[in-house]
Design goal:
It is a single chain. Strand 13 and strand 14 form a beta hairpin. It contains 15 helices and 15 strands. Strands 1, 2, 3, 4, 5, 6, 9, 10 and 11 form a nine-stranded mixed beta sheet that branches. A four-stranded antiparallel beta sheet has the order 12-13-14-15, covered by helices on one side. Strands 7-8 form a two-stranded antiparallel ribbon. It has a single domain, classed as Alkaline Phosphatase, subunit A, CATH 3.40.720.10. By secondary structure, it is of the alpha/beta class.
Length: 495
Amino acid sequence: MPRWTALPLACLAALVCAGGPALGAPAPRANVVLVSLCSIRPDHMSAYGYARETTPSLRALAGESIVFEHAFTPWPKTVPAFAALLTAKYAHSTGVMRITPRQHLADEHRTLAEVLADAGYATAAFLSTPALVSTTNIAQGFHTVDEVWRQPAWWDLPSERALAWIRRQRLEHPDQPFLVWAHYNHAHYPYHGGGADPDMFVDDAHYDPRAQVKVHADRKMRLSLGVPTDHFAAHQILRPDIGGVHYQAILRPRPTELAFYLARYDAGIFGADRAVGRLLAGLRDLGLLGSTIVVVVGDHGESLGDHNYYFEHGRFPYDATARVPLLVRLPGPSRARRIDAPASTLGLMPTVLDALGVAAPSGVDGASLLPAIEGGEPPAHVYTESGFQMDYALSVRDRRWKLIHVPNPVDRQLQRGTEWELYDWRADPGETRNEVAAHPEEAERLRRALRAWAAPWRETAYARAPSLTAPPDEAAVKRLRALGYIGDAPRPSRP
């Protein structure tokens, strides 16, 4: 029996009053709405306590939801993040890692959409980023895939088209449950407000113009990194997003004011929240919110100058890009609460299936978060992978400590200069103090956990070539370049 149908009589009576199934009738299986937010940091959401009112709609939803205060993506880059989130498998299991363009999820990896389609669900995805273009195969299992980013004014389209599809679905197949995925790319560079006024927070009470940033006019990082000139990803590794503003990410008219970038970024978060609010309002108006599992999740955060890394994500393992929002609203009586323990979005697929009473595919890496939601113990450790094209940084964290392994000397030059980094992430959320020397026993304990986790695959997983498809179509290439995924320099061919 699906977990959400096992409700107390009072709750069933409430469903009847709300137009739900009659008492004694078989309860239908819950619908699922997956809301994904690109590049949005929890510490810039008012739903997580941020000073600016950037997320009024999600703040209201948080009052009805289980909110994970410390959720982390398995890989802080769009395509690897969604490949992991939808399959419950790490990037080293699927081969979907490294850069975003031209990645491909093999058919053998079953997604949440495929599992629910086999269980009788109608499935539809409404995607506002070219990073998820059809050639990535990330949306496998969705009967309907609408790449709304192809439209010139797409801000409201994920919500509008999702609601139109739901209305049509309810008319034509009223008894069939559905899975809808709506993706919102509003806060991604170039920080254009996501349909909201991009200057809505400029010069407000939280704006501090004193912090200045460098502007890189050059297209390559002027550091002696030892990267082979014929390396097939040299253009990614050498991008000038360290130590100053990436030449593709300069925002005028105030290109050297850090606060200007932050204000524009926050406006994009507000734009995303407003669009999500319309989707949630539409579900309420249709009388479906009470019978729908709503999940709000991020793919990755954004480095807003943290660790000398400006307005990007994917390269570093720090929490500025690894920490993401995660809210789960379940049908039935409110179980709203905030969970302080760390959690991985790798558990999203098993959690949804667990709540529905649907078996997860064999071979998944992620574990359901439902036990933690119901008051049990969450997993003892959370693991993440990160990096570009060479050797990849691995991280493990528990309730207090986070250990990072940086095997590549190039990456060490860009980070702390050492192979191992240890942070007390509660006392030092900005990860500014490497505590390896001060707390060697904690470092060794987590080092053993990380090595045990990585031992079965570490030697082979990152050595293989990326799983690439043919280049995306011209429209996707143009939009990816505008979003900073692709540089202007020609892409070197693989040796």
